[in-house]
Design a protein that fits this description.
The chain is built from 7 helices and 12 strands. With about 280 residues, it is an alpha/beta fold. The protein folds into 2 domains: about 190 residues, 3-Layer(aba) Sandwich (Rossmann fold), CATH 3.40.50.170; about 70 residues, no CATH class. The strands form 2 sheets. The protein has a 7-stranded mixed sheet with strand order 3-2-1-4-5-6-7. The chain has a 5-stranded antiparallel sheet with strand order 8-9-12-11-10. The chain is elongated and about 70 Å long.
Length: about 280
Amino acid sequence: MKIIYFGSDYAYDALLSLVEAGHDLAAIYSFPCDNIFGFNARLQALAENMEIPYAEKPPSRDELEALAKGEEADLILSLGYAYKIPVLTGDIYSVNIHPSVLPKARGLMPLPHIIMNEPDAAGITAHKLVEEIDAGDVLQQVPLPLIEGETIETLSSRIAMHMPEFLGRLIGNLPELWNKAKPQDRTAKTVAPVPDQEARHIKWTDTVADTMARVRAFGRMGVLFTLNEELWLASRVSGWQEKHDQESGALSYLSASDIVVAVSDGFVCISEAEPLAQA
């Protein structure tokens, strides 16, 4: 198949496995990355080596139609793309890969939500690309039950490691899967909101378990906390359950290296943090 790919370096190994299996790339669309949490340098190099178009600006419908027709592309494949892709009609497959078991946890960045709130949504789904985000008929999906102590890094890595086999099976059977695609159960739909500052903020009234789930859900991005009306970014947090009579949010211990704060059923120890300037 000849593929127009939309994504970042996250699924580079899976994309390369398709090329090595004999599939062709017509073009690569990515988006600006910060090279801290998102990367696309490997895709840029691949496009240069294959002498195919590469762009970080989303195409218009006319541009994408012209490219697909001119290159005689068979498939538009999206995986973790940051922009809405025009949905083409006609003789071309358009598929999005979403990191959840749809219709659960629709949304642009569902992994923190899955770890904190909806663990049974963890998995991978391939679905038809339609106008409504993450709403297309399901072609193929696989659940990935959360492991003990799951973090956003481990879950993201596990999904990426499954992707070469997942995509190979999908594309190898695409015509059949396309014809047998199943509509999503709209009554079971859930939406994972795009994480904002509030989602990353430790709430001292939470339990230790909920606090640590939040920490794992944001991993190296860090979590936020407020102490003495000052906002901080924490990158190393631990906690334990212990009965106490302190008010939630009370500063329980302070040393040169650790801050310990009381939560509803125990204590949270913050070992690496820095204050954030507030506008």
